[in-house]
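> run fold PIGO transferase
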Amino acid sequence: MQRIKGFTTGSLPTFVDVGNNFASSAILEDNLIHQLGQNGRRVVFMGDDTWESLFPGRFHRCLPFPSFNVKDLHTVDNGILQHLYPTMEGGDWDVLIAHFLGVDHCGHRFGPDHPAMAAKLTQMDQVIRDVIGRLQNDTLLVVMGDHGMTDTGDHGGESLKETDAALFLYSPSQLFPPSEGQAEPEVIPQTDLVPTLALLLGIPIPYSNIGQVISLLFTRDALANGTSAQLAEAQALWINAKQVNRFLDTYSQIAKDLPLESLARLRGEFSLLSAEYSALLGANPTSPTSPEFAPRLKELLSSLRSYLSEVRETCRASWARFHPLKMASGVAVLAATCLLCCAISELAGVIGRGDWNPLWTSVVLGTVAGGSVAVWQLVFYSQVDLLWALCGAALVSQLAFFWKAYRMNRNGTSKKAKPIPRALQKGLSDLSVPLCILLLRCASLFSDSYVIAEGRVATFLLFTLGVSIPLRLNWDGQLLSLMPDTQKPYPSQSSIRRESLTLLGCLGFLVVSLYLSLSFHGCREEQGSCEPSPFLAPLSRIQDGQLRNLRYFLSVASLVAWAYLVRSWLRHYGNLNSPSPAVASTGVSPQAELHHLIPQIYQRMRRSLEEEVIGQEGDGRPAVEAYGLGTVYSAPLLLVSGLLGLGLAMLHPEGMALSFLLLLLESAAILYMNSAASSLAAPGDHTDGFWVPWAPVLMWALAATQFFHSTGHLPTFPSIQWNSAFVGFNQSHASALLPGLLVAANTFSAQILLAVSCPLLLFWPLVCESRGNRRARGAQGDDEAVMEMKLRENPDGFSAALLQLGMRFLLVHGVQLLASVCAAAVLRRHLMVWKVFAPKLMFEAFGFLVTSLFVLLGFAFVMRVDVAVTGWFKRLVPDLSR
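> ok
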């Protein structure tokens, strides 16, 4: 869309126009299509249906074809060829536009070096030959590409291969003056086509054009001395210069974002050009035969070209409009939100209790503040800027929450909660290393080099944080301790040794997974010597049959391994206990076997009941013992995450299936490391509630960034995997909603998976609670709830732990987003701002929204399971209250 806008309006598209590539809206600026229609020209269009949405109702005849399906190489092209030649021969047109898409789609699907590309180029070559054979003498043929493509067939960046495209002009009549020898063709900006075609067709140049006419097209009537050619060229350039100057004057009065010095200089240059043009070619022109005419005319042509080029460069440098006050307000709101997440995570144990609930107060005050800002704007400015109203509401509500928290901490209004400094002081020792890692991560976002190498930076930080966990435990004497503490009844030395070996083994597993994941990274255009991963190429691009079969079976094996590992874990912890074949076959077994089986079952049940009666204390209350519920929360969440992971893997190229398997292994390593570290640091200690340390939370968040890159994604627009929009669909979509959701799910699959499965960080230490610890605590009572049943027996602690975990996870992502926002704001005049920092900000912001949404869904799913379990217990014993 940006390219089409550029070569129809003559203006420079801005960075934010990239959003219109997915939902194109009508171009409201003055443009060639509008001017052609206004001046009675019949414009016929056929091809890419994007034109229909950009110029609705502007065509004399429109034949659009669906363009979004990049797997379809022929529908658009064949549709054009069906109507192109009859339309040309019919004569009911003045301008005929045919936008072919086969070459573009072939590049996206197969790349530029595939045999299918050669076939498409051959077809286009024949089309050009056939069109030339049907041209009239008064017709101009313009063959052009709106962009190029990289070696992988992508485009959207700023590399030479992406921005360069061919331009071929032909007419049966003489178009250019004869040239001496073969000359290197000049580079022509696409905006230069706008004034050129406008003057050739006899219509006004679009108002916002800053392009420059192609001079050679106005010199075809050149005489031997070349004087008339220069006169025609000067007239075209002068019309162009007057139009650009008029636009510059009007725009500078409205926008006021052009540098005053540059604006004054350009106005002075135009005044001189106007005087010189009037002297040479005005009402009283200089005689063409005078000796000074030719040199002055040549100098005038050079000055006009220089003026037009300078205007374009001035606009290019200045058309990045920034609003410092709004930027500062956005940073303030985002920073306050991060502080709010931190405060809520530390106050999770008291939020929602009857003695302290500041949420409703904050909401009410925020609503009042937002409404006040809106009323103030309406009174003084007669309009409401919703952005300022929302900003005021957010800041006031957050300040109200902070003030209430400060009052609570100072006055000790909640006796059940520790003061905030004490709660923070307890975790400072655990927070030191994760805080340093997070600060390094944020600092890296201020460097274009580190943003370009973000995948390796995230991998290194994740590795460093993983190594720090056993080092800290060893420093505290909790790892493979040789001096047993006789004061503690548990854990035993065997338990310490087992957990220590588990921790070190999982660390090694994590390191291997991180190293292997580097094999799946893509390459940015700034990384000249980088070779993209061969796993990113779809099977259709692999020419070697054996290699293609190997890739196929490896991908299938990876998906099978994913499903097998998830199923094995579920069965290991007592899930998926559907009737086995032996039990199911009892219905058709002989009666004699059943008569032998039933007494044995009865005897076992009688002995079990006798043991329970002996152990009862006789309080008269019904006793309930439930078995197989040790993973009642983690099992359904893991099952949902496993199925979701398989679905997301289907949206990626086949080679990424192995990368998803590495993600599963890497996530398991982080979970088991967290479990082992928790067991070694505070075995079985839940007196202060359930909580997840900062280190595994930060590792989980860094894994999302690391896996984003390990699936071939990059924070750049050319790296978006558009093929995912048509996975499972053979035809085009009726709307852009479904393909947009599929592309978003493909791009942010890492954030989706790790956000949904985030509660596993809370459940895993309980699931992996060592048997030795449970036996050691057996003296306290065999009826003590074990594993995840501890959460059900402590609903307040469970809710607080979920809230704290969610806030910590969102805080880590929010701090990264804040750093990216600050980097884009501080470096807004940096050379790489639009190439590196702005795309990174957009991907980080959208990733944060996706993460927030799926964290909410994941935690809502856990709460739904908790409600179902509680209801099941109540139905089991009606008078048993939780």
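The mean pLDDT is 80.
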